[in-house]
Amino acid sequence: MTSDVSGPAPASSRAGAAAPAIVATGLSKAFGKKVALDGVSLTVPRGSVFALLGPNGSGKTTLVQVLSTLRLPSAGSAEVLGHDLRTAPAEVRAGIGVTGQFSAVDSMLTGLENLLLMAKLYHLARDEGEARARSLLKRFDLSEAWSRPPSTYSGGMRRRLDIAMTLMGDPALIFLDEPTTGLDPRSRQTMWQIVREFVAEGVTVFLTTQYLQEADELADQIALLDHGRVVAHGTPAELKQHAPGAHITLRFATSAGLHAAARSVPGSTPDADAFTLRCPMAADGGAVKRVLDRVPDGLPIEDITVHTPDLDDVFFALSGTTPQTRTEDTARTGDHR
């Protein structure tokens, strides 16, 4: 089965009519009898943030490994920055940066030494490497920690250093594999701002995450991966429109008012203890008015709460899983992310 993710370039794209950063067709990857990717096709416009959502074991990390040439696909093809994964892996690697789930920082070196090591790996001249390293230390607010080993850094500081190391090669495309896992809310917000700055400079970001809010905040396009297949794709707004769960909750002053309204609003669910009525509604602009028009005149409504679907609703509706069932499934089958 081939799952296709495509569409027009988002408004934030600075590439105009330039070729996409990634075009993948029918990518599959198996580990023995375990299928980690099952016919994934996707297109990532340049200068955008593409978020890949999915529970543990869905194939997110495997897809990043394939697209970044760390693993060969079992079937299918892909071009990254215009280069074929199979025939030009060196050219692909020259244009990308990868920050994995686990830090690549060497705790025995200082922050500056970690960056200078990356400069050597990228074959930068000594002066150029040191200048770029110090510029990145300043950009990532690590100037005062340059001479300290990362073992003395906070989690957020280590993650910023990890991404700074990725940027030493000045990549056009950055893979960020669950970059904010384990970070506190303030560090997560800092990381989001860094991603926004990348895109403003024309860099393409391929982001995997389990944080639905993160994808909602950052992504131009989102694909939901489950059991190795893309089960949904689109902008955050488009995905929310197709998720169930939109409803309006009305709170009444009296029990009599509650039950009178319940008789008048089809499909509504009363909560006698809270004097509230949950009313399903369609995901469009006139939905709230249509619900209220069904409430008999003269019934005092004390409060109105509107719930529109969010990416949590999308995630659980389309992946057909809950955190508990996914944890149990991963424990049984192994986690091929």
UniProtKB/TrEMBL annotation:
Instruction: Note the superkingdom of the native organism.
Output: Bacteria
In its keyword annotation, does this UniProt entry include ATP-binding? Answer: yes
What is the recorded name of this protein? ATP-binding cassette domain-containing protein
Q: Where in the cell is it found?
A: Cell membrane
Q: According to its record, how does it sit in the membrane?
A: Peripheral membrane protein
Q: Tell me which UniProt keywords the record has, alphabetically.
A: Antibiotic resistance, ATP-binding, Nucleotide-binding, Transport
Which GO-annotated molecular functions does the record name?
ATP binding
**Keyword match Transport:** yes
Where does the ABC transporter domain start and stop, copy by copy? Answer: 22-252
User: Which InterPro entries does this entry report, sorted A to Z?
Assistant: AAA+_ATPase, ABC_transporter-like_ATP-bd, ABC_transporter-like_CS, ABC_transporter_ATP-binding, P-loop_NTPase
